[in-house]
Amino acid sequence: MPYRWRIDECSATRLAGWIDDDGPVDAIDVAVNGRHIATLSPVEYRKDLQDAGIGDGRRSFSLSMSRYLVEPLNLVSISCGSRILHTATVRRADAESRANAVLPAGKTGVPQGDRETSGEPLLKGDVRRVYRDVTNMEACEFYHVVDLPDGTPTRGQWDLRKTADRYLGNVDFAGRRVIEIGPASGFLSFHMERRGARVAVIEPPMESFWDLVPQSAANLDHVRSSFGSHIEQIRNSFWYLHKLYRSSVECYEIDVRATVVADHRAIGRASQRRETLSSIRDRIGAPERGEKDGPWDCSTARSR
Length: 304
Known about the structure:
alpha+beta, 304 residues, single chain
């Protein structure tokens, strides 16, 4: 029989739940912001569990959480071995009074009340925050291999499950803010979030693909049409996992052709580089406007 479990409470004051593996489970681990804080033995007795036929009722666990929540927002993760049982973003108790959403409906693309917002957005300026509700895995194409909650791995082009930390340079992400450009299925986005980072990802609008290399012989309209469904399915996989994990990763759309005015604290004083970004915008757009003799001649460009 596979694991059965339930997280009854994951709040600023208390973590509680139960787990059964056709018998007692030796231990579960609790981490906050990517740091291990406790190993619990789920052997506390609950009469309701015994009445429900879940062993002898000694399958529950609880932990006082307030002392471990040092940030205004904290990522709590509960695992058993290599299996993630639950993740949640929890506000510190003294931050509850500031918990009102600051992302106005109709401006961010994020439904109010659909999921917990995370305070001030990581990116500001000429960007659009987006959210999609994807529940059908059949509509997804996974760029990364991911273990689903039932233990089934998805098919994907890249398998970073055993090497993600090394791939990311063994960085300690606890308490960090991260911007990822082009998350694909989001494996690394969610991995960094589980390690304690607050993550924002950037994608181009669907009508503007960054990874189409302009070539004089290429029919970009045809390429966009055939490539579009592929990209759409990969983006569906990101949102499918985002919902599955109850993730707080923020997603933004930015058109590289537009001048980006961003929060300099988040992406390195980009607002002071408007002329540079405008130049890049013009160079990228020139071949599509037929300006072969323009600022950037892509007639000899080759994709690799």
